[in-house]
Amino acid sequence: xxxxxxxxxxxxxxxxxxxxxxxxxxxxxxxxxxxxxxxxxxxxxxxxxxxxxxxxxxxxxxxxxxxxxxxxxxxxxxxxxxxxxxxxxxxxxxxxxxxxxxxxxxxxxxxxxxxxxxxxxxxxxxxxxxxxxxxxxxxxxxxxxxxxxxxxxxxxxxxxxxxxxxxxxxxxxxxxxxxxxxxxxxxxxxxxxxxxxxxxxxxxxxxxxxxxxxxxxxxxxxxxxxxxxxxxxxxxxxxxxxxxxxxxxxxxxxxxxxxxxxxxxxxxxxxxxxxxxxxxxxxxxxxx
Length: 288
Ligand code: GLU
Prior knowledge:
It is a single chain. The chain has 288 residues and is of the alpha/beta class. The protein has helices spanning 20-35, 56-66, 82-94, 105-110, 154-158, 172-182, 197-207, 243-253, 264-274, and strands at residues 7-10, 39-44, 76-77, 98-101, 130-133, 141-144, 148-151, 162-164, 187-191, 214-218, 221-224, 227-228, 285-286. The protein has one domain: HUPs (Rossmann fold, 3-Layer(aba) Sandwich), CATH 3.40.50. It contains nine helices and 13 strands. It is elongated. The model has no long low-confidence stretch (mean pLDDT 94). Bound molecules: glutamic acid (GLU). Residues 11-13, 45, 176, 190, 194 line the site of glutamic acid. Glutamic acid binds at residues 11-13, 45, 176, 190, 194.
């Protein structure tokens, strides 16, 4: 049987410059896609203006180019998709597959581990607030291409989670699934910090009737045990002028054979031919 052509992606949020942790996700997803002769798309997840840093989107794209991480097709900006997200929400609401919720943070905390669905049982239903899905077919298990069988807590899996926030912003889970679905992504390669999100995202892929992509989560780069490198904890930006060193370090982090120092493009081409999924370590690694 002919298998579907591979389409992968890298989906950074423009909340700061690329750092070593995001380079791992970019490089890992790039190598996997190219090793399978697939496409590699870049999507800027700019749906959270309060967390956006001016100039970060362009900065991320120029860094990718400086690293020889050239993408296919044009970059998709999530900010151009708001009407599509809204249309999907309206359809879910009209089919009673989602409902408004006005519970406060305090009320939700008092419920314990997860939201108890109380606003979904009100008659008449509320007509403003956050929007939650009716999670009638929770997904508590899935297979990761690197990590194997993953099981998340039942409470987490079955929660009626938020797809539009009270402040009017579209939730990451909604946007990422609609975009991965509409862009025909066949495999999601990203950091392990989003491992459990894959359970919720599978729920949404099913609900929206998309084909669910394969999942492949990479080990996280940590500043210290349990504390991942992130823009929030001010991980240093990677250097646009010396990509060779960072590429070598990122390949080492991913357990890949080293490559000869050359232009970034030539180094990546060699890394693609040598790419070995099984060599990627499964644990988080301390890099500082
Ligand atoms: N935009 C998300 C982030 O920067 C990643 C989304 C994803 O890969 O699913 O953390």
